[in-house]
Amino acid sequence: MKKIITSGIVSIFMSIMVIGGALAADAVVSVDTNSAYVWRGITFNDGLVVQPSVAVSHKGFGINVWGNIDVGDYNDTLKSGEFSEVDFTLSYGFNIKGIDVSLGYIEYLFPNGAEGTKEVFGTLGYNIYKGLSASFGFYYDVDEIDSYYTNFSLGYNLPIGKKFSLNFGALAGYAGKDFAIAYGGIDGGFYEYTFSVRGNYSITKAFSIYASLLHTESFDKEVLPDQDVDFYGGAGISYTF
Q1: pLDDT digit string (tens) for 48-103?
Q2: CB crowding 210-237: b at 16 or more within 10 Å, else e
Q3: Which has the closest alpha carbon to 206: 26, 32, 52, 16?
Q4: Is pTM beyond 0.70 here?
Q5: In the chain, where are the structural domains located?
Q6: What CATH code would you report for 2-240?
Q7: What 3-state class would DSSP assign to 9?
Q8: Dihedral angle of Cα 213, 215, 216, 221, to the nearest 10 degrees
């Protein structure tokens, strides 16, 4: 069964790449290795993970498939070497007077048997001035939780030479009551904050490598309880077709 599930997931990744080629669309394949899996401030694995993804975009429409493979077993609660999560994202993006707008749908699947769920989302992005940008995201779980999560972030991209750049980020999240309760909280409110720095190096126009370091903490322990991971980081590679 393990081999069948893994083969099926790999086939999905390959199929998305074939679709991109057939549509003459832009396709990006990436593989990240991180010291932990942290999502919206929540620790899902405090050990090593590998996270492959394939993204295809064409005329504003986008398809993304992302997966998490656990290498660490998180105190024997996870199966090492298996996909524990696969996310499918469909989106459509456009620009209105300098504001980047994206609307979409996310399907969260857990091959290990946990209940999956679904979200709809909308994001806004704006370039403020010379590398400084701001974004806002609203996500609503329409399946298992029936609640929302939002975040606001600032980013600054600093080019250093022609091939290397540093990106600094700061994010604050806010969660609805039912969303917070689903992950161990008591009430809704300000959820988590995250600071990040990422270095990107372009080997060629298509091939790049990168590394990142992040720090995340809970705003309010009644909204997001203490987590096992606050500092984590990783590295990855990406190729654009």
Answers
A1: 999 999 999 989 999 999 999 999 988 888 888 889 999 999 999 999 999 999 99
A2: bebebebebbbeebbeebebbebebebe
A3: 26
A4: yes
A5: 2-240
A6: 2.40.160.40
A7: helix
A8: 150
